[in-house]
Amino acid sequence: MNYNQLLHNAYVKRWESLTLSIQELEDIDRPTHPLLLKVMDEIGYHDSDIKLMVVGKETNDWEGPFGYYNVEGLQDFYETFMKESNKAKKTTFWRYMRGFRHHIEKAYPNLTVSTIWNNIHKLGRNGEKGKPNAKIQEITQKHFNVFEDELNILKPDIVIFLTGPGYDAALKNQLPGLTLNSIEDFEMKKIAHCSHPSLPNASIKTYHPGHLNTLTPEKKVFHRESPFHIVERMVSKIKN
Fold first, then answer.
1. Which end of the chain is more exposed for a tag (fewer CB within 10 A), N or C?
2. Can you tell which superkingdom this protein's organism belongs to (predicted)?
3. CATH number of the domain encompassing residue 217
4. What DSSP designation does 60 have?
C-alpha cells in the first residue's frame, strides 16, 4: 500500500535529468510544473473494488513556471487540489470525471470506487492552454516518461482516456506498442479499446468532454452517455 512512496521514487529517479534539460531551454520555451500524482487514501484505494483512472490531455498551467517546486511539493499540491471540491471542479471535464464514478456506483451499489486523475502530457505550457511544444514533448519522452510507471504502481482496473483522436500519437509515445480497436462497431475516432501490457483490459479512449458533451442522445448514435454505458458493461465483466 506504499503507493505514494513508489510514485515519489519514480519521480525522483528522473527529476535531476528533467531539471537539467529544462534549465537549458530559453525562458519562453520553459513549461509549467509536471502533474505528479498522490493517492489521498492509500488504504481506501487499495481496498476499493474498482480503481478508476481518468486521463486528460494536459494542465493549463500547474503552479507556475518550472523550477519553484520539488517532487514532494508537487505531490502535495496534487493532493490539495483533489481535496478542494470547489476548485476547477465545475468544468465539463470534472463533471464527466465524476460522472464515470457515479454511473458505476449507481449501477453497482455494492462496489466501492476510487478515482485517480492523470494527464497524458505530464508537463503543460506555462500560463497557456494547449499541447506543450515539441521541445517539451521531446524532453518529457527522454527524461520524464513516467506514465507507464504510474500505471504499474497504481494498477487501475479501468482506464479512460478523455483525449480524443488528436492525442493518439501522445498515447503511443507514452505507451509504445499501444493498439486501438473498435468497440461495438463505433468509429474508433469516437471510442476505441486500448490494449497494452501496462493497461487493464478495461481501457478505452474517447472524446474530450468538451466535445463529448455536444453529442446529444436525441441526435447521435454515439452520444455523451455512450461511454458511461460502455464502462458500466466493462465493470460487469470485471466482476463476473
1. C
2. Bacteria
3. 3.40.470
4. B
